[in-house]
Design goal:
Number of domains: 1
Radius of gyration: 15 Å
Number of strands: 0
Order of helices and strands: HHHH
Number of helices: 4
Structural class: mainly alpha
Shape: elongated
Distance between the termini: 31 Å
Length: 54
């Protein structure tokens, strides 16, 4: 949730400042940008989609 907030506001505010205020590391934010959802979250979404297709 914090990373999504930073991504949403990064054109207006400094990423480093937001990370410091939200107590997260900038490297974690940039890693999240490359792959915002974990493998577990992706698999959960895939299975949920399969349930609702039936």
């Amino acid at each position: 949730m914090k990373y999504a907030f930073i991504a949403l506001h990064r054109l207006r505010f400094s990423v480093r400042t937001m990370c410091r205020l939200l107590h997260v590391h900038p490297s974690g934010f940039y890693a999240w940008l490359k792959n915002p959802s974990s493998k577990r979250a992706s698999e959960d979404k895939r299975q949920t989609d399969l349930l609702f297709q039936a």
